[in-house]
Amino acid sequence: MSAVAVSHFIRIIMTDLTQHPAIMKENSEVHINCSHDDSNLVIMLWYQQSKDSLSMTLIGYGYESSQNYEGLFEEQFTMTRQNTVKGTLIIHRASLSHSAVYFCAASTQ
């Protein structure tokens, strides 16, 4: 069985966000949590940076009550929000193609 490397970091200015890196088993469901401390930042965005890539790809963004996905990401990922300051990115069945650095960010618009 292969292992999937899932690293996740957060980049945002003027607020404190928290995430922790992980290595998961292939075909497992992976939950990546993100939290910040500013309830004015109502939009949470999730990005994926694949191995050997300098650019990040937007997975999607959402508010507490609705999520918007880019391209085919909705088939592989689910974004949830527990409240304005906490959210989770879920990888349904982790595979080697999901090996990446995942970023969350928060914004007012």
And the CATH topology? Immunoglobulin-like
> What is the mean predicted local confidence, pLDDT?
83
The helix-strand sequence is EEEEEEHEEE
Helix content class: under 10%
Total beta-strand segments? 9
What would CATH call the architecture? Answer: Sandwich
Uncertain stretches: 4-15
H/I helix tally: 1
Estimate the strand proportion.
over 45%
Counted up, domains total 1
Q: Strands across the major sheet, in which order?
A: 2-1-9-4-5-6
Q: What do these coordinates show?
A:
With 109 residues, the chain is mainly β. It has a single domain, classed as Sandwich (Immunoglobulin-like). The chain is 4% helix and 51% strand. It has 1 helix and 9 strands. The strands form 2 sheets. Strands 2-1-9-4-5-6 form a 6-stranded mixed beta sheet, with no helix packed on it. Strands 3-8-7 form a 3-stranded antiparallel beta sheet. Strand 4 and strand 5 form a beta hairpin. It is globular, with a radius of gyration of 13 Å. It starts with a strand and ends with a strand. About 11% of the residues have low confidence.
Brief rundown of the structure:
By secondary structure, this protein is mainly β.
List the helices and strands and how they pair.
Blueprint: E1 3-10, E2 22-25, E3 30-35, E4 43-50, E5 57-62, E6 67-69, H1 73-76, E7 77-83, E8 86-91, E9 100-107
Parallel strand pairs: 1-9
Antiparallel strand pairs: 1-2, 3-8, 4-5, 4-9, 5-6, 7-8
Domain Ig-like: 10-109
GO biological process, one term: cell surface receptor signaling pathway
Protein name: Ig-like domain-containing protein
